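Quick start: read one record
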Amino acid sequence: MSRVMTETARARELGIPFPGTPGASNAITDVAGLTVGMTTLIDGEGPLTVGQGPVRTGVTAILPRGAAGLGESCAAGWYSLNGNGEMTGTTWIEESGALTMPVLITNTHSVGACHTGSVRWVAERRPDLGATWLLPVVAETWDGYLNDINGGHVTPEVAMATLDAATAGPVAEGSVGGGTGMNCYGFKGGSGTSSRVVAHAGDEYVVAAFVQANFGSREELTIAGVHLGHELADDNPMLDGDWLSRDKHRGGTSGAGSVIVVIATDAPLLPHQCKALARRVPLGLARTGTSGGHFSGDIFLAFSTANPGALVSEIPLTPASADDAYRSMRFVPWGHMDAFYEAAVHSVEEAVVNALVANRHLPGGAMIGRDGHRSPSMPVDRVLAALGRRSGRSNGRDDQGGQP
């Protein structure tokens, strides 16, 4: 198994095998026009003092059509594998089949601040939109193991700055943005992304995933089809110490935390086809080992940037005329959706592993948070060695022959 061990190398570049062909950046921003912003808040150390820290949190913003496309509808659908979490705005998406607002992802107790910030940001930049109703999409996962989650460190102003910072191109991964304080399979988790190119009827489309990974028990971890949980069972501080017994009443158990996934595509899809993509997200997560625990809020959103304007909900000021009485949508026939489902599953799987791999250069091999709580980086060298041994056995070689 070949690998390129550089500071910026991602899971695929290190030699971890994944199916499918990624887009140019292997990121959600491979969907043209889509932008991502992140604000990372890291400050202080030592004992928890509510309102003062330590701070290990942040915000991620996804603008489906960038700031210039604000208010332009996208066909959309959502799905909840397990509802112990929050994603606002989903009832209107279910009703209208459309997403018109940015998507913000943060920690559990900062949903309100981000919701307020999103409304204020839209109202300031597009007063015409702010004059009507605004139903922001804000999702969360819990970072209270590392972060002063009740401290109010994410403010509406932080959310607005994150929206202003959104750009196209490569997307930062690991302990950044909303993923700053998150844990995954007992290792340091956070933000991850990946994309796939799908050919259909002579055209090429992108299906891409962004994951805020804060889920999974160590013993479940599986990478590239190889079960690694027991081999990597050591150094699992989330199972140790008095924090676990103290917090068990609120779900402080192995595997708790939550995962938010956003699927974006430029393929022309109906809202129910977007929902069908969102329903495939758990299959990608399952490839990394999780069984979806009761204390994990697993909520997924999928949208298409094709068919701009087709699903706008406008208040009619005059009776319908021949020019505006009907709208039409172009869409992939249902019988040809399998390739798009496959792309969603594969991009989710790789995005999770990218989130884990990106943390391998944390100082001291871990993030230290409130009350000295520690979240170790996944030992990438041991993962690569284990995958190499499995590859060696599959090629008829001994355990040593397949090591990188």
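The chain has eight helices and 16 strands.
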